[in-house]
Every structure is written in structure tokens, then in C-alpha cells.
Amino acid sequence: MVLTASNVAEVAQTLSGIASQKITGFDLRGMNRLLEYTPEDMTVSVEAGITLAELQRQLGERGQWLPVDPPQAENLTIGALLAGNKSGPRRYGYGTIRDYLLGIKVVLADGRTIKAGGKVVKNVAGYDLCKLFVGSRGTLGVIIEATFKVLPKPETEKTVSATFPTLEALADTLEHLAVSSVVPVAVDTHNYGGTTTLVACFAGPSEDVSWQLGCARDLGFREDASFEYERAFWNSSEPARCLSVLPSKVVETLRQIEPKSYVVRAGNGIIYYRGGKEPDHPALPRELMRRIKDTYDPKHLLPELPW
Predict the structure, then answer these.
(1) Is 101 within a domain?
(2) pLDDT digits (tens, 9 = 90+) for 57-77
(3) H or E segment at 129?
(4) Is residue 221 assigned to a domain?
(5) To the nearest 10°, the Cα dihedral for 165, 171, 175, 176?
(6) Do 256 and 203 share a structural domain?
């Protein structure tokens, strides 16, 4: 059963009325309003069904944005963004959606509605349930509203790249980049087009970006670039696997798994790939995860944990 609703009451009524039928997904695209936007305070509240692209469009009219850039933003709702903790290349410089979430409203499995956080940047009271629900993949409740802090859009942004004949050469440049004076907002490596490529993106005041580009050229970043590789990778119908390692272990891990295609957040150590070998995964805190699931969804009506 896919839960479909156009307002909070419908979500609550559906959940409270379920006896045993399991919910397998959520369609909240009917809940797509921008509820409150205060550009002067740089905060915005929205319903969970609005897409990230539409929210960015409305924020952009006032020179602001929500600094996350996950793939396929035109189809990604805010609810799915939060439930999946989605992110993109600029995660290295701006962080994840958790860093900008001020408050949420959630309908629990029994139909009760709860709130966590608030509508201002400084609000600390009790447990931080926002961080519990972000990345929970809809297993603990249905996120229906969210409030974020937003940022001014950068004055300038420039993306450059360097290519390498071997992974060893890539590793050497990554080491030099890590100890250099530049502060990129994105550091990705990929093999789109069949070549090992390292991408760096710089954003901010024009003079600052210009200076950083000069430093980047000294490190070998001499080609203008874009995030086209990101779009191409995620437009494939073949599912991608994800692996998280220490940034210092990125090249070593690529050698081990020998992927057919990959996009790597080299600055964060997150590897998305297709083909290749299945690596060893660290043990998950399964017992703790089960206890949390049983607390928030004792009848297990919502989607199960993805393992």
C-alpha cells in the first residue's frame, strides 16, 4: 500500500485506521505548499511534498538557496530528501540536509502528530528528534512539514578538473589538495567517459574564487568542468551501490572493488558505483535499530529497515 494524501489530516486518518496492511511507500505530492518564508531571517517552512527544485526556484527569486544538491532534484520531494538523507557533490563544502534542518512535523504510525525542533536557528530543548528522522527512510514516521535555514547564493562558482592515467596519480593529487590552502565546496572523482578524473568546485566572492583557481591550476586543475558526470551517472536505470570509507581510503577501495563506473565524493569518502566486487561492510547496530523501530512503529506498519 502506498500512502497518498493531500493534507495532514488525511495522513493521520490513514495511519490511525490501518489494522494490519503494510505501507510500502509515500506519495505526498499533493502536500506541496511553501508555508512560510522569511528572507530576512533566512528561514523557510514547507510541506514535504514540494520538490527540491521548486523550493530552490522560489528561494532563488530572493537570491537564496537551500545548500544541498542531490541528483534528480526536479523529482525529489523534501520528504524523500529528508527520509533518505540525500546529498550531492557540494556536500563537501556545505554539509548535509541535517545541518540546515531546524524543525519537522511527523505523523507517527498510530496517527499521532509530533513536532521536533522549531522555526528559529537557536532552539535547543530535549532530544534532537530531527536527526533521528533524517535518514530513517520512512520507517519511523511520515515527515509532513519541515523548516530550514537557508543561505545566500554564492556570488561566483567555478568548477575545474584534472585527469590522470592511473589511480596512483589521482591519490597523489588528492593528498596535495588536502594540505593545500584552497577550500573547495566539492571534491569528486569519477570515470565518466572512461578517464579517471578529479573535479573541484569553488564558490564565494569573485576575488576569492579567482585566487583559489590560481592555486588549483598549480595542482593540475587546468580544465573547465561541470557536474555533467553526476547527471549521467544517476540517469542510468541500473541501480548503484554505495560504500562509505575514510577519505584517505578512497583510492585503495577503488582498487579493491574494481567498479565498472563510479562517482566518488572524494572529500567525504562516499563511493557510488556499479559493477565490480562486493566489499566487506562494517557491522550495523542492528539491535539498537530494532529497538527504535519497535518503539515508534510497534505494529511494523511502516516500511521495514532496509537490511
Answers:
(1) yes
(2) 999 999 999 999 999 999 999
(3) helix 129-133
(4) yes
(5) 0
(6) yes
